[in-house]
Design goal:
The chain is an alpha/beta fold and 359 residues long. It is 40% helix and 18% strand. The chain has 11 helices and 12 strands. The relative contact order is 0.16. The protein binds 3-isopropylmalic acid and manganese (II) ion.
Amino acid sequence: MNSYKIAVVDGDGIGPEVCAATIKVIDEVIKGARSIEWDHVAGGAQNYLDTGVALPDETVERCRSADAILLGAAGLPGVLYPDGTEAGQDTTLQLRFELDLYANLRPIKLYEGVKTPLEGRPNINYVIVRENSEGLYASRGGGNVLRGETASDTMLITRKGVERIVRQAAELSLQRNGAPLDGKKRVTICDKSNVLRSFAFFRSVADEVLADYPEIEVDYALVDALSMYLVTRPSYYDVIVAENMFGDIISDLGAATIGGLGMADSSEIGESHALFQASHGSAPDIAGKGVANPIATILSGASMLEWLGGRSDDSLLTESAFAIRSAVEAALAEGDGLTKDLGGQAGTQDCVDAIVRRL
Ligand code: IPM
Ligand code: MN
């Protein structure tokens, strides 16, 4: 029997609850047909308070040797380094850098049964492909504040970085059914090339890569205009590729249109490692109350199974991923899976039960 080891970084706030929910759903769908070892490892803002590091070396090594990584949420407001940035963010950020998790895939999909604040209930189903290893985030821990007068962080864009992320975006578009509006396979390049040289470079390298994909329509969007279009015509989008910081920002904008961050799952993928966590934070205000929406993490867990199944040629995992997604879809559409943030009544456990019942 194939066996897998998953490193679990429970992290802070609601992190342990959403991880437990996801592990429960995965264990239920696998039902002993595979052996999955869940290796809980330390990390997060609380770990920083307790030990002085957000991400221990041992955690990095156990994540490196695991088949995949599941992360709950990390970071607590107010737990800061002397430079004023949040210590807990290094849990995620250092894993991204250490394991070169360069492709952050963030599906934005409006499920039946979930309310959107947008008028006319548009059909929303696109994926943000966020560059996850460079851009403005490359400066993390390396910016400069001089004499209390000036501050700078540098944005780094490399040819290699743009090529590999745009290729991911194009390959993803090929596998999808196109934009809901017109069925066209479309890759939107999100940048600010009208103002900054680095983004003009990003766009030109992206153009070169997309020239290899004549079946895909190339679309250009400045990030400010795109922020408007994601509200006014979201069904036009299929795959959007963006620099790290822009990808971060438009992810939350997109999430707001599909029921909020509780619905926003995410996969962070490199050549040989991958990490799965929701786009949301640790929500300390609701931690421990049993009300957190676990769906974003559960859907991230489904993507983990799909990725692992593909890599290990294990179709049971791939099928399990689809089974989880269908169960989530039904639990939302029929209402018993809707948590309070989605306007429903379900607590975290009720939501998990609603999903498990349908597996
Ligand atoms: C995200 C989060 C992270 C980010 C944090 C946790 C470092 O906001 O994954 O979108 O800023 O990238
Ligand atoms: Mn974010």
